[in-house]
Amino acid sequence: xxxxxxxxxxxxxxxxxxxxxxxxxxxxxxxxxxxxxxxxxxxxxxxxxxxxxxxxxxxxxxxxxxxxxxxxxxxxxxxxxxxxxxxxxxxxxxxxxxxxxxxxxxxxxxxxxxxxxxxxxxxxxxxxxxxxxxxxxxxxxxxxxxxxxxxxxxxxxxxxxxxxxxxxxxxxxxxxxxxxxxxxxxxxxxxxxxxxxxxxxxxxxxxxxxxxxxxxxxxxxxxxxxxxxxxxxx
Length: 234
Fold this sequence. Notes:
31% of the residues lie in helices and 32% in strands. The chain has helices spanning 10-17, 20-26, 38-55, 65-104, and strands at 110-114, 117-120, 127-131, 137-145, 151-156, 161-164, 177-187, 192-195, 197-210, 213-218, 222-225, 232-233. The strands form two sheets. Strands 1, 3, 6, 9, 10, 11 and 12 form a seven-stranded antiparallel beta sheet that branches. Belongs to the FlgD family. Residues 98-228 form the FlgD Tudor-like domain.
């Protein structure tokens, strides 16, 4: 007969009765159960294995009390771990759903990206342009060209932020289309240097939980990872 004291607690139970063949022979085969009942089924299997071992123990060598406590402690730990696993899975599912819902609201918005071209749409909302003016700059300016490379607007930059009202130099409203922006700065020696610009670029789509996490599909820039450093425009 099996001696419970030599079975090393739960490990002995599993090695003696844990195979599919052994469980079938003992009449304790784990039934197919829905996912939400899996934890309860695991506990029932554990109890059945434990009872089967008690049936097979040597009457002259009853189970050691310490083994009994150790096995019940393992059972309690199994129960708690199963519950924690279910809770974490539910939390992960909820977080993924919330992330997908939040990210979907970004489609159609714009993000400031390095570049010198931007598509201008109808509406009164100005186009935001950003650059960094050097400390030794005496004068900085911005020139705007249309799709035919014609200069349509020249503006003086008093700071690194400029909002274009979509008007030309004569105050006429310009049509929608792609425009090119060129910023430059001149120092006290008259030396002129080109400045990098950041322009609004449309977010065309979002990928959730890809191999790179959540990424934005940005027009003319491809996939950009979503981080706190990105500035999303309305």
